[in-house]
């Protein structure tokens, strides 16, 4: 665990310990979110990821999100697959905290999706060329 700077209250020093067990990465990417209510989409919006780990993500939101609600996040991944294929990261989870600045989502499941690339698409077949030999 990581120790946070000591805080003093009423002459007593307190040392808080970082509760997160997963390493967080500062990744700022545009994110789209869908709040789900059963099979229906209750709310949609956009924001920006501020940090992400294998266990959760913190991102800005347009409005405060309802704690406990399932949410689907979609963001472009900043690294290309095989240096040529863009990917999208889909995150499925639940809102665990929200305020006027953003929301925290615990990740229940995630998947990477390829977005296609010219390098992976079939090249067009060129038109046949007719060759004539001199007679």
How many helices?
Answer: 0
User: Strands across the major sheet, in which order?
Assistant: 3-4-5-8-7-6
Mean pLDDT across all residues, rounded?
Answer: 80
Uncertain residue segments: 1-9
Q: Which structural class is indicated by helix and strand composition?
A: mainly beta
Strand content: over 45%
Count all strands and give the number: 8
CA-atom Rg in angstroms: 23 Å
Describe the 3D structure.
- This protein is mainly β and 135 residues long.
- The protein has no helices and 8 strands.
- It has a 6-stranded antiparallel β-barrel with strand order 3-4-5-8-7-6. Strands 1-2 form a two-stranded antiparallel ribbon.
- The N terminus is likely disordered.
What characteristics describe this protein?
135 residues, mainly beta, two-stranded antiparallel ribbon, 8 strands
Task: Please outline the helices and strands.
Layout: E1 7-9, E2 12-14, E3 30-37, E4 40-52, E5 56-59, E6 70-76, E7 87-98, E8 103-114
Antiparallel strand pairs: 1-2, 3-4, 3-6, 4-5, 5-8, 6-7, 7-8
In short:
By secondary structure, this protein is an all-beta fold.
